[in-house]
Amino acid sequence: MTLETPHHKSRERSDDGLHRAVSEPPGGPRAWLVWGTAAAVYLLAMFHRNGMSAAALHAQERFDLGPALLSTLPVVQLAIYVLLQIPSGLLADRLGPRRSLVISLGVMAAGTILFALAPDARTAVAGRVLIGAGDSLVFLNVIRVAALWFPRRQYSLVSALTGLAGGLGQLVSAAPLSALLNGFGWEVSFLGAGAVNLLVGALVLLLVQDRPDGRRAPSHAFPSMRESLAEALSHRGPLVGMAAHAVIMVPFTVLGVLWGYPLLEEGYGLSARATGLLLTGAMVLPMALVPFLGRIPGSHPRARKPMALGLAWTVTLLWSGVVLWPGGLPPLPVAAAVILVSAFASVLAPSISFDYARDGLPEQRTGAASGLVNMSGFTSVMLGVVGAGILLDMGGDEASFQVAFVPMTLLCLTASTAMTVLLRRGRR
Residue ranges under compositional bias (Basic and acidic residues) (predicted)? Predict the structure, then answer.
């Protein structure tokens, strides 16, 4: 039985400052249930995306890999994720959330099982490729659920809560996954994760609908990729969203994807347990504040710009301090504070980046813009992870970790500058 829910009229902000009347859904308990189920898929995807950090040293021993080769495992996964963002955005516009999320869970399950049973690095890479392909469909469809089920004024809040769900996935991929790997071993841990994919897929089939009125997404022809990209890039909002995502969520994601555990264990000499607790603790305070801060961009549009600029430049300047610290890595309390601020920025990134991505675009054509925003962020992550791996291979001491984060910091500086220029132009 489907629930019929009325739509209400509101006024939507565009990047040229104009407002137009649109018909939008009212939200409500049913919307939160549907979104919550979709968000569980994102939590699981983030677990898979960031699990290599806790598993890095295990994988290094299992497959006999050095730092540069080790970085290929998450980087190949991220490369597939990035390359598929635009096709995934167009597919999201066509298939709708329910079918897209089921497909993504099936593909991630296959990749996780292959990764669990991989006898060598080549097979492990194939598993990460499948995980990246499945992951590429997830986030765009979760925020599509937010756009289809909630009014625009709640969109930034729901996007922030989606980031919170991703943060929970990162939490599970840190200390809990490390404990599972140490207690039960490689195969049992990752086979269990593959089984969870299938269970969540059953929940999606049971609870998720594409729209409040129960209609499925229309199977219309794919829009031209060139036209979709040109439309998104012709508006300032998606460009600002791309720049924001390329800095605000990047540093903590680079740590979560691979280099957090090696930095703290090898760079600072912490135990695996202490490292897991530090990375887990870094997420707790930001996650607690998300329900309050995440609603600001939607409820107070004028606050969106200072939030974006403040987070971007804070993260950039803090990591500049890390890589320029005299004599090597800064003291552990300083590094812990930088990690905490980076986690705070990462959790809030979706509420800002994807709110900008919607400016000036009709709801049914936001997939390509969201794909561009996600692509920009994870391209920066991928380059940061690879750059760190190469520089660590060239070094061999504690100071190597300080040098390893130079590429990531330069990317953040570039993106922050670009966003500042775009927002200044918008005032003229």
Answer: 12-22
Per the CB < 8 A criterion, the answer to whether 269 and 329 are in contact is no
- pTM, full prediction: 0.69
CATH number of the domain bearing residue 207? 1.20.1250.20
User: Is 163 within a domain?
Assistant: yes
Grouping H, G, I as helix, E, B as strand and the rest as coil, residue 270 is: coil
Checking 329-332 for CB contacts under 8 A at 24+ apart, the result is 329/267, 329/268, 329/398, 329/399, 329/401, 329/402, 332/268, 332/270
257 or 323: which leads in pLDDT: 323
The count of domains in the chain is 1
Q: Distance between CA atoms of 36 and 400, rounded to whole angstroms? A: 41
Q: What is the pLDDT of residues 137-167, one digit of tens each?
A: 998 899 888 888 888 778 778 877 887 888 7
Residue 325, Cβ neighbours under 10 Å: how many? 15
Q: Which of 220, 283, 186 is nearest to 91 (CA)?
A: 220
pLDDT score of 310 more than 60: yes
Asked whether residue 157 is assigned to any structural domain, the reply reads yes
What is the rounded CA–CA span in Å between residue 80 and residue 392? Answer: 24
Does any domain span residue 187?
Answer: yes
- Closest residue by Cα to residue 40 from 144, 156, 166: 166
Q: What percent of the chain has pLDDT over 90?
A: 31
Longest Cα–Cα distance in the chain: 66
Q: Is residue 5 part of a domain?
A: no
